[in-house]
Specification:
The complex is a heterodimer of chains A (296) and B (274).
Chain A lengths: L4 E10 L2 E11 L4 E5 L6 H8 L7 E6 L11 E4 L11 H11 L7 H7 L15 H12 L6 E5 L7 H16 L3 E5 L3 H7 L2 E6 L2 E6 L1 H8 L3 E7 L4 H7 L4 E3 L2 E6 L4 H9 L5 E7 L3 H10 L4
Helix pairs in contact in A: 7-10
Chain B lengths: L1 H17 L2 H20 L10 H25 L4 H6 L2 H5 L5 H34 L7 H29 L2 H30 L3 H13 L1 H12 L8 H5 L5 H24 L4
Helix pairs in contact in B: 1-6, 2-3, 2-6, 3-6, 3-7, 3-8, 3-10, 6-7, 7-8, 7-10, 7-12, 8-9, 10-12
The chains are: A alpha/beta (296), B mainly alpha (274).
């Protein structure tokens, strides 16, 4: 099967300032890809280029086998802070979007129920909370059977339960073969719910891969927290010269390769150790490692 | 294509109804028509025309101001509002062409304008005919006024969309719309009149002035209606001075302007980068 989205050597500048430089990526059918990056890293610009809203300066881009903006019936978009006309009701807004996509409007109510807005369908969007507006945005992205969903910070403004429901919806779509490209600041949820991560920094793609791959590539140190039995602190410290005292315990960090050897040395002293905690580098650490690498 | 245009029109109609634009437009037209028909029901024997034709002449002078104003009020927000609310990027990712969006908005706004015009003129006609049944002979003039008013309105709705696309901010679009209304409807005539007086029957009066009148959709509208009902004698100085312009020329201007303004609107909207 061919990729739903292919981008190679994409470049875009706004008045001399490079927003994207030499970005290449591909998203396969059924794949969930997270786009990470700090504010201004180029995430929204990249999405708008994919959607055909702004034209790139250079590079090639194919969306569902066509140029961006030419396959709009197969692409759904959820903008950051989805906004709608406050005078329309949720039902009217969704009905409008369904008509534009040529879908039967009889399914509008069912769609609103699916995102938990059935009870508010006939109220004006002006009376909705931010989370409810975000659900209207989500509902419109589900209209028809899009092959590519481009979601800009889809879970901002959603409570934890709604977030879980949202990712369950995405899992269902991906299982049906839809490709999903989403950006997020909530690293922990992205970690559990996507197949692959892309990290943008200063308009460049600085890392790409699954979380274990990125973890290996970053080669960040593993932290260990050792709690010594009473009186054995100095013994342990002399055996492990790298350890430092921290908050009444001992703190030690070592590289991935040394991890097992270090653990073996600690377990050799098990009569002196009360507890041991191994802390792998978190997604936040990996993320800052990659996005800081270019002097950000 | 038709389905998408209609979908946009229905949605715009919902919005206009909720925002009370329908009510405001109808109320404006009805109130001003009532005032005029009340004022126009004074004895008119000297003119030899039926009462309705006299009312139509006054309604023409009113509509030149009011129809463009109502049209601009409804349309100035059309594109700038979408940009400012942040709804435009999402809309443009839908499988809908930009001109289809504008066509849908135009359909809804023109329909509202037609309702307002028919309500206003209808009330004026009903009162006049009730007072003098012989006034029915003026219905032809009223019908002419009605469809030309709709075309005039469509022209200014298109101009409103173009200004809205150029400004990209609601406040800027409002300013441009008011400025354009003042310029085309009020100051334009004053300027021409001053020029004609200063020129005193020279080249400007004979050649530039008629063309300048035809170039302005509001003046062409007034000219056509007054010439057609031969009421120029009773009309303002500008129209009186332009009595020599043949009817077909003002008709052509009335017919062409809506197309020109809509093409301008479509071009301006195409330049808007979400």
């Amino acid at each position: 099967m061919t990729s739903t989205l292919t981008i190679s050597h994409l470049t875009k500048a706004f008045g001399g300032v490079k927003a994207l430089s030499d970005v290449s990526l591909a998203v396969e059918p059924g794949e969930r890809v997270a786009l990470l990056g700090h504010n201004g890293a180029g995430k929204s610009t990249l999405m708008k280029v994919i959607l055909g809203l702004i034209a790139p300066d250079g590079g090639e881009i194919t969306v569902c086998g066509a140029a961006p903006g030419k396959a709009r019936s197969q692409v759904a978009y959820l903008p950051e802070n989805a906004a709608f006309h406050s005078a329309l009701t949720g039902l009217e807004q969704i009905t409008y979007y369904m008509r534009l996509r040529g879908e039967p409007v009889s399914g509008a109510m069912e769609l609103l129920d699916r995102v938990g807005l059935g009870h508010a369908a006939k109220r004006r969007i002006g009376t909705y909370s931010k989370g409810m507006r975000q659900r209207v945005g989500l509902a419109q992205a589900l209209i028809g059977h899009p092959r590519l969903l481009v979601l800009d910070e889809p879970t901002s403004g959603l409570d934890p339960v709604s977030r879980r429901d949202f990712y369950e919806l995405l899992d269902g779509l991906a299982a049906d073969g839809a490709s999903i490209l989403l950006s997020s600041h909530a690293l922990t949820e992205v970690e559990a719910r996507t197949d692959r991560l892309l990290i943008l920094s200063g308009g460049r793609m600085v890392a790409e891969g699954s979380l274990p791959e990125l973890r290996r590539e970053a080669a960040l140190p593993v932290s260990m927290q050792i709690t010594a039995l009473n009186g054995y602190v100095t013994d342990i410290m002399s055996a492990l010269p790298d350890a430092i005292r921290l908050n009444g315990g001992l703190h030690l960090s070592c590289t991935q390769e040394d991890k097992l050897a270090t653990l073996a040395r600690i377990s050799a002293m098990q009569e002196k150790v009360a507890d041991l905690e191994v802390i792998p580098p978190s997604l936040e650490d990996i993320y800052s490692h990659f996005s800081r690498r270019d002097g950000q | 294509m038709i389905a998408r245009i209609l979908a946009t029109a229905v949605t715009e109609a919902h919005i206009a109804r909720r925002n009370r634009w329908v009510l405001i437009a109808v109320a404006l037209m009805v109130v001003f028509s009532l005032v005029l028909s009340a004022a126009g029901s004074a004895p008119t024997g000297a003119l030899g025309a039926d009462r309705l034709s006299v009312v139509v002449a006054s309604l023409t002078s009113l509509s030149v101001y009011l129809v463009p104003l109502v049209a601009l009020l409804m349309s100035f927000e059309a594109v700038a509002g979408e940009v400012e609310r942040g709804t435009l990027p999402l809309l443009l990712t839908y499988p809908v062409a930009r001109w289809e969006v504008l066509a849908g908005k135009l359909l809804a706004h023109t329909a509202i304008l037609i309702v307002a015009i028919v309500a206003g003129y209808g009330v004026a006609a009903a009162i006049t005919i009730a007072a003098d049944p012989a006034a029915v002979s003026g219905l032809g003039a009223l019908w002419r006024l009605t469809w030309t008013s709709v075309l005039l309105g469509a022209t200014f709705i298109g101009i409103g969309y173009a200004l809205s696309s150029l400004a990209r901010r609601v406040s800027g679009a409002a300013g441009l719309a008011i400025g354009l209304w003042l310029g085309l409807v009020v100051l334009y005539d004053l300027g021409l009149l001053a020029a004609v007086v200063a020129d005193d029957g020279g080249f400007f009066t004979t050649d530039v002035f008629p063309a300048a009148l035809l170039a302005n959709p509001a003046d062409a509208f007034r000219l056509f209606n007054l010439t057609a009902s031969q009421a120029t004698a009773a009309a303002s100085g500008v129209a009186g001075a332009a009595a020599a312009i043949p009817l077909w020329q003002s008709l052509l201007s009335i017919l062409i302007w809506p197309l020109v303004s809509l093409v301008l609107a479509a071009l301006a909207f195409r330049k808007v980068e979400p």
